Amino acid sequence: MADIPKYYPPLGFHFRVSFTGATNATDTYFQSVSGLSVQIQTETWKEGGENRFEHTLPVRTKYSDLVLKRGLFRPKESVWTDWFSDTIALMSASSSERKQSQFTRTRDLLIELLNEKHEPLARWTVAHAWPKNWKINDLNAERSEVLIESLELNYNYFTYDRP
């Protein structure tokens, strides 16, 4: 008789996202998170006298943008909305005002995959994220859908660990 596996891969629907300075626990749940992706960029190098192949060498890593989606949260109660609004206001300011301030306020994010007891199974720490794009789905009277906001973030890198 075959052994029954004692471990099953975790499901990807129970997670939370938080960042430094966030205090509202209900502001940490999102419908989806995409963009936890890293690619190693390469260069080719041709060796003199060797015409059968080229060497492919790793050069640097490139991380894609992180996209968070959720139902529109009450704007006055969301630290995410405050962060985006502050960044938009900063970028709309004059260049002399921007020079006196930071380019943008970066934050470190923590994305946790949770088990059935709401305990972390896996963690991704996203370093130096800043808001890049904020989008609200179309307002449409012909559909009865939840209004979704998409938050797109640029970041330097992420690390992965299991608690």
Automatic annotation (TrEMBL):
Can you say what this protein is called? Phage tail protein
What species was this sequence derived from?
Answer: Spirosoma validum
Gene Ontology molecular function: structural molecule activity
Tree of life domain: Bacteria
**InterPro entries per the UniProt record, alphabetical:** CHP02241, Phage_T4_Gp19
